[in-house]
Amino acid sequence: MSSEAKFYPRSNESRYMALYMAHMINAATSLNNPLTQRTRDRLNLIFPEYKNKMTERSIKKAEAAGLVAEKEKLREKLSMYCSHFLQVFNMCIKRGEYKAGERAYYGMDVNSEKLPPLLLQNDVWTAAEQIIKGEQMRIAAGGAPMVCPSADEVEAVFNVFKPAVNNCSNAKDAYDNAQEAVQKLNKEANGVIKKVWNEVEVFYSEQARPSMREHARRWGVVYGRKGYKKKVTGIVVDNISGLPLEGVSLKISTGRKTIKTGIDGKFTISTSLMDEQKLYATHPDYVAYETEIMLYENRNTECRVEMRKEE
User: Fold this and answer.
1) C-beta of residue 249 within 8 angstroms of C-beta of residue 259
2) Residue percentage of the chain with pLDDT more than 70
């Protein structure tokens, strides 16, 4: 028998699903099991270990995502305080309360009201440090303290922001370590999946092709040919307000169809594609969105798309 073209897993998620399906049906099959005892033993060893490592990775990923969201709120708050401080300082110069040359204390061009960049984390960090140090130097040189906001207020927000950045870095390291722990198991996982799929195909090789493939799919085998029709459904919302977005164009990267969301922000894409795919979402007023989705045999996929407005 010539083997059908199989679509072997390329991601940790698809490896886990292949192991999960094989492990479940193997545990439920006592008679006429297509797997050799050696393959069954390897499967029973790798699956629980892979599952535990994937669970640990998911936990670390969720923890990191939560800390990133918290840090981003603090970054926006610190950016606002720095911006307000420097804007008020510029207005005080116009009123004659301060001299234009004093802008140098905060790392600004003395001949321009232009504020420093305050979007990226490092930019906001640098601006806050310059405001705090610069205000100390300016006051030491005889200048009157700034108010509404004061440098002390900027520093108070900065002191909350700094540990948040450190917490994010530690959480990312923990997630990377969890990811590496999964990666170390991938060689054995790939080997077991290949053995399972090959042995299942050989076992059912005397049956007609459609029947053979149907049996093999129950063991987690994914064929490279397009599978049965399935649906990718979901909703597109504004990432700040959470309100549904109408008129968003969505497309699976290797697919041909492009659909648009209705007034409720919901969408449905019919496809026969499988395994890892990229989902693209675009809207004239929003930043283009891209995410990876997994498409499995005989299963629909749901996802939530959160889009950020163009600045």
Assistant:
1) yes
2) 96
